[in-house]
Amino acid sequence: MIRKCLFPAAGYGTRFLPATKAMPKEMLPIVNKPLIEYAVEEARDAGLRHMALVTGRGKRALEDHFDISYELEHQIRGTEKEKFLAGTRELIDTCTFSYTRQVEMKGLGHAILSGQPLIGDEPFAVVLADDLCLNLEGDGVLTQMIQLYKKYRCSIVAIQEVPRDQTHKYGVIAGEQMADDLYRVSHMVEKPSPQDAPSNLAIIGRYILTPDIFDLIADTQPGKGGEIQITDALMKQAQNGGVLAYKFKGLRFDCGDAEGYLQASNFCYENVYLNGR
Fold it and tell me: For 154-182, what is each residue's pLDDT tens digit?
């Protein structure tokens, strides 16, 4: 089944400048844990053990975070601070981490294509760490999607309803409703204006992709903003009925901008950190 999760993490994080000028946006802390660790935990909880990160210049902190710091661990050994690294150390011990670089920033589609050497010829998950997804009452979003993949064996995108005036920020889908929370995608548009949007169902940063997506991305010309868009490649799959859209259970915070980041921090402090989750 699905063993690997790809984390595109090469972007500049320009929506969060100046904080991201010298620090990866994926390392921004939600209370005391960086976004990338939440993302890896979600993948681990879904049964994935091979974490593949597509990084870029200035992203070395991501590699260092998922590595043993002998000096730090020696310094805090036997103190109450040791518990704060327990979760990170468990990820290091139970998962494998591999890295490659996206040399040029050419869009999400290009970032995913850059990860092909780490993925190979098998289905895989994709998680965008700055989309923090939490479901405190049940399975995580990626776990929900993998359960669907076991049944349908095709590409799946996570979606949520957004206000019409926000469609220009997302890829937006249209399709046939198969169940209350599931659609067979017939059309996708990248960042449409409200009047051109086929619906208000927006794609967020969780994907299950079949390996043929790599060839489709390679044949995709630059689209919106001059970038290679994953929605354009997925549209080719959708034309053959090969893409589902899933309205997931849980909450999603856009931590790429200040408002969503503060909402996520407040929520996690009150509902996760204080409860020892």
Answer: 999 999 999 999 999 899 999 999 998 99
50, β-bridge pairs: 4, 96
Q: The tokens of 139 are what?
A: 């399975």
Closest by alpha carbon to 101, among 84, 113, 83? 113
Residues in the chain: 277
- The C-alpha angle with vertex 199 and arms to 197 and 204, in degrees rounded to 5, equals 90
| pLDDT tens readout for residues 203-239 | 999 999 999 999 999 998 887 778 898 999 999 999 8
Is the pLDDT assigned to residue 64 strictly greater than 80?
Answer: yes
3-state secondary structure of 155: strand
Nearest Cα neighbor of 213 from 125, 93, 106, 138 is 125
Q: What is the CATH number of the domain that holds 216?
A: 3.90.550.10
Contact 37, 87 (CB under 8 A): yes
- C-alpha dihedral, 156 to 161 to 164 to 169, nearest 10°: -50
pLDDT for res 250: 95
Structural domain range at position 126: 4-273
Q: What are the strands, taking DSSP E only, across 60-170?
A: 96-101, 124-127, 131-134, 155-161
Domain count, the chain: 1
The CB density around residue 91, as the number of other CB atoms within 10 Å, is 17
**pLDDT band at 277; cut points 50, 70, 90:** low
